[in-house]
Amino acid sequence: MDRNLQIIGLAKKAGLLAVGAEDSSSAAKTGKARVVISAHDASENALRRVRNSLEGKRTLHVVVPYTSFELGTVSGRGSPGTVAILDAGLAARFMTGMAETDPERYGEQATALTEKARAIAERKKLKPSGKRRTVQ
Q1: What DSSP assignment string belongs to 17-77?
Q2: What sign for the dihedral angle of Cα 8, 29, 61, 80?
Q3: With contact defined as beta carbons under 8 Å apart, do 80 and 69 qualify?
Q4: Which of 46, 83, 97, 110 has the fewest CB atoms in 10 Å of its CB?
Q5: Phi and psi of 93, rounded to 5°?
Q6: For the residues 108-133, what does the mean pLDDT come to?
Q7: Number of neighbours of residue 109 by Cβ within 10 angstroms
Q8: CA 117 from chain center: how many Å?
Q9: 15 in helix, strand or coil?
Q10: What are the Cα distances from residue 94, in Å, to 45, 126, 134, 135?
Q11: Domain ranges across the chain
Q12: Superfamily for the 3-126 domain
């Protein structure tokens, strides 16, 4: 199995994957989606729905060389034309893998998403946990 498809499967197991055009669109509208992935054979209706939901958002949308059947195999649902990864780190890993296969097409997007994931990780490190520590 392709490494990039394994990352989508990992996101599914972790509960960080929205499957299908409707779920992906709603995740993008609420700002939860980090990258929306469409299969190259996705229907025009699904692509239009995703594009409309991404208007004015910073969420990345990519059309990948995988089929709906391949996305369905790793996501555990039929053959969705679109999935969305909800975690910045997993999305950056996916885009880095895509950039390795086609640097001209995905390289710039992978770099931007990797920087975004680093910034999110840094913000999480600086946030105090709120738990009180006591010394005995």
Answers
A1: EEESHHHHHHHHHHT--SEEEEETT--HHHHHHHHHHHTT---EEEEES--HHHHHHHHTS
A2: positive
A3: no
A4: 97
A5: -65, -40
A6: 78
A7: 17
A8: 12
A9: coil
A10: 25, 26, 42, 43
A11: 3-126
A12: Ribosomal protein L30/S12 (3.30.1330.30)
The kind and range of the H/E element at 83 are strand 82-85
| pTM, 2 dp | 0.85
Q: Which of 57, 68, 61, 73 is nearest to 106 (CA)?
A: 61
> Which residue from 70, 100, 97 is spatially nearest to 82, judged by alpha carbons?
70
What percent of the chain stands above pLDDT 70?
A: 91
Please write the tens of the pLDDT for every residue from 30-78: 989 999 999 999 889 888 888 888 888 888 899 999 999 999 999 888 8
Tokens describing residue 25: 């669109």
Strands 60-64 and 35-39: parallel
Show the tokens assigned to 80: 């969705």
